[in-house]
Amino acid sequence: MNNHTLLKDTTVNGKIRFLSIMGEFHRYDLAIINPEAPEDEIFILDINQNRFITISKSKVIDEEGYIEHTLNYTEIDAEELRELIKQVL
After folding, report:
1. Band of the pLDDT at 10, cuts 50, 70, 90?
2. Is 74 among the domain residues?
3. Which domain of life is it from (predicted)?
4. CA-CA-CA-CA torsion for 36, 41, 44, 45, nearest 10 degrees?
5. DSSP per-residue letters across 31-85
6. pTM for this one?
7. 18-29 b/e (C-beta count within 10 Å ≥ 16 → b)
8. Are 53 and 44 in contact (CB under 8 A)?
């Protein structure tokens, strides 16, 4: 018998954008998922590393260390990704 408790099951409409970008140091294959609600929140999936983050658009641009820690990027790669995401958002 299964004793799992379902905590949340939500279906949200949104847009998915697939990007393959060659930066100066790293290739980024990303899926950026922009749900209709909440407005400021996005999901970034790194397809190469099988890691994802849920983050507000303002945090992508402003918060140092979050991308590095969550996606396990070096500081240089995270800064490059931050700049690339600014261009596409």
Report:
1. confident
2. yes
3. Bacteria
4. -70
5. EEEEESSSTTEEEEEETTTTEEEEEEHHHHHH-TTHHHHHHT--HHHHHHHHHHH
6. 0.76
7. eeeeeeeeeebe
8. yes
Identify whether 23 is part of a domain. yes
Q: What is the pLDDT of residue 20?
A: 92
* Cβ contact 47:30 at 8 Å: yes
> Number of folded domains in the chain?
1
Give the integer Cα–Cα distance in Å for 27 and 29: 7
* Structural domain includes residue 80: yes
Range of the domain at 76: 14-88
- Residue 61 in domain: yes
Averaged pLDDT, 19-40: 85
